[in-house]
Amino acid sequence: MPQPSDESADRRSRLLASAAKTLNKLSDVLAPLAARFAADGHELYLVGGSVRDAVLGRLGNDLDFTTDARPEDVQRLLSGWADNQWDTGIAFGTVSAAKGDQQIEITTFRTDSYDQVSRNPEVQYGTSLEEDLIRRDFTVNAMAVRLGADGSQEFVDPLSGMDALLEGLLDTPSTPEKSFGDDPLRMLRAARFVSQLGFSLMPRVHEAITAMAGQIERITAERVQVELDKLILGEFPIEGIDVMCETGLATYVLPEVPAMKLEIDEHHQHKDVYWHSLTVLKQAIDLEDGDPDLVLRWAALLHDIGKPDTRRHEEGGGVSFHHHEVVGSKMVRKRMRALKYSKKMIDDVSQLVFLHLRFHGYGKGQWTDSAVRRYATDAGDLLPKLHKLVRADSTTRNKRRAAALQATYDDLEERIAALAEQEDLARVRPDLDGNAIMELLSIPAGPEVGKAWKFLKELRLDRGPLPREEAEKALLEWWKTL
């Protein structure tokens, strides 16, 4: 292995010093816990993502440990010290606990074996830290810190995880073919870590994922969903998504995204719809207020997935994608149902996809107040996200056109705000409720009341709030036509 440069050695020293400083701030948790294990004759190591994140200066409230103590001994040692503990992972040698605001997982050394069919290992306890580390997914997650009874810390890195971290590379402790064969979810985790950490795949890892991508079908939809959400919420989701598409993983878990490649959009301003969609995702992220917005990010990525199915070549060489928002909304529902998303998540993302193109009918402000009301009412609670999505969807390189589009949307937002102040658009309801409808029309509860309610709501959207007498007159006239 080549010797590290002075610059690399200096960076290594600075990162390790920073990690030690971070961990020293947790000495009130780490030192007493290590002392309890040492007094009972056991070793305790901080391990995995906790060490990686401490080195990168991004350690959260989740602490992962490994030990030679068996699970029943871990439970005993945690009793009287932890605030709470759980045994939900004990079949895999893991005991979970909480101490203050820290969530703790302690796992006994393992040397698992896999049947290459499911991703669940046959748990076998190991006898050394090295055995435990080599079974992990990536070398950057196979670093450890030995915690001494006296509060000391010793960095342990038998698999050169720090070298990989310094180079920003993801590599597997064993061969990638064995690692991914044992647990195909690790392939998707590779793309997720690209998104979260900004790292790149080692060539052999990229090649193995490309060759083995189909094995991701061994993984349940629920676990795939969790990884996809973590990926899209990462700091570098564009790169993570592109890795999925380059290796072929996306063909199995999110095929609508790579299908957008080479589908030229109607403005002819982007290489293809795929890269346009990634640009929209990036711009939507730039518009977020604070925490990452999962619904907005999914809608930005998927807003144009209906284009391949609606692509039409027009006379003169043009290309159109008529009603791609309608088709795309249905496709979102189908894919997200397959990935076992909640009904609300599916409804929200598909509705944003359905509505994202409507603004383009606004022109230079030709919409009536009725059309503005409908836009805001159809969006409902999603209106702030829709504003961001529509703005992000402007990816033209023509600065004058881009400025004009943003100014036009400013105008629409101002009109929505003005109407909302006058009419409380968030609670648009008919001017008569169900009881008043039944009394006026002398009808019992039933489908006719629903039809009348719908008529009055449409009237309310068209004409704004009406005096009661005028609403009653309109309803009676409508009723006579039935």
UniProtKB/TrEMBL annotation:
SMART domains: HDc. Keywords: Coiled coil, Magnesium, Metal-binding, Nucleotide-binding, Nucleotidyltransferase, Transferase, tRNA processing. InterPro entries: Bact_CCA-adding_enz_type3_sf (IPR050264), HD/PDEase_dom (IPR003607), HD_domain (IPR006674), HDIG_dom (IPR006675), NT_sf (IPR043519), PolA_pol_head_dom (IPR002646), PolyA_RNA-bd (IPR032828), tRNA_adenylyltransferase (IPR014065). Its cofactor is Mg(2+). Signal peptide: none annotated. The keyword Nucleotidyltransferase applies. This is CCA tRNA nucleotidyltransferase. Residues 402-429 form a coiled coil. Its EC number is 2.7.7.72. Residues 269-435 form the HD/PDEase domain. Pfam families: HD, PolyA_pol, PolyA_pol_RNAbd. It is an enzyme of class 2 (transferase). Transmembrane segments: none annotated. One of its GO terms (molecular function) is CCA tRNA nucleotidyltransferase activity.
